[in-house]
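Hi V.,

Quick status before I head out on leave. The structure for the redesign project is tokenized and pasted below; the design run finished overnight.
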């Protein structure tokens, strides 16, 4: 089990969530990355191979964060997506795997001819 972060700071203008864990691990996670990797069933599906590739979220931001017990945070995005519960374990994984996950996301967008930009802003 991963310990709770020692800090969660959202930098609104940069649209980046800074997460610090005990032991010095520090991650800067863009809101767009958090949104497209949401742990919600809407994004991840209900089983292997059911993940939805979400395009058009380049400019998404975070409206608020709500604690969920002592193990997670619910992030509410300005596109009104709010069903993902980000456990401390998952936030650490997102930080540690950011480069690989982001590359896979961009490859998946390209394969589906989707854009990070919302329709009409390409």
């Amino acid at each position: 089990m991963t310990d709770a972060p020692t800090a969660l700071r959202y930098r609104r203008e940069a649209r980046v969530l800074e997460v610090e864990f005990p032991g010095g691990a520090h991650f800067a996670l863009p809101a767009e990355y958090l949104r497209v990797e949401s742990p919600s069933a809407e994004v991840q599906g209900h089983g292997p191979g059911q993940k939805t590739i979400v395009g058009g979220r380049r400019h998404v931001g975070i409206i608020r964060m709500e604690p969920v017990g002592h193990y997670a945070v619910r992030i509410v995005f300005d596109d009104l997506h709010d069903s993902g519960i980000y456990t401390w374990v998952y936030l650490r994984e997102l930080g540690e795997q950011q480069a690989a996950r982001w590359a896979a996301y961009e490859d998946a967008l390209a394969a589906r001819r989707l854009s990070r930009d919302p329709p009409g802003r390409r």
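Above is the designed sequence. Helices lie at 31-36, 41-44, 88-96, 98-111.

G. will cover questions while I'm gone.

Best,
W.
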